[in-house]
Amino acid sequence: MGSGVSGIPTPTEIVLVRHARSVPPTADGPDEFTRPLTTDGLRQAQELVAVLTEPRPAAVWSSPYRRAIQTVQPTADALGLPVRTLTELREWDDGLSFTEVWESHYVRSWANLSYARPGGESLEQLSIRAVEAVRTLVRHNPGRVVLVGSHGTFISRALAGFGVPVSWATVRQMPMPAIYRLRFTDPSTRPTVCGWT
């Protein structure tokens, strides 16, 4: 951590942003990497600038998925910062092919966090990945604010990994976009968490 004027370590803050409203998935694409924000979602991303520039982020990171990048890009532009991507910030690899009845599959996974479909990861595995990705950003940005564009299930499982009670109902109620501020006094400890908007 950096040191403040009084010699007390300056906390590191990770601002997790669930992407704005995105184009729904369809059987014929676009795929998860290229699926963009809707026109309304692009407007929401612009409206986030005032809120997301307020804590003065020193760096902007994102999932490599287009909808996450598009959500934080206007804020990065306003700050004069690049958006850097990190594969570990991607959404849950749920192991599902396209289906319109995906919700029953998600309910099953939330009921059994260790369950993984072939080629996918369990929600337990996602929590491990998400917590490590966040801790990596904390370790590399001591005493700074870092803005992170990501996804609903990723953020939910990161919070769960840090001891915040999260359920499938919580995820279903999370808006697009949503903002969580995680404040760390040390990379190895649990953060204090300010809720979503």
From TrEMBL:
Please give the superkingdom of this protein's source: Bacteria
One Pfam family per UniProt: His_Phos_1
Q: What is this protein called?
A: Phosphoglycerate mutase
UniProt organism field = Micromonospora andamanensis
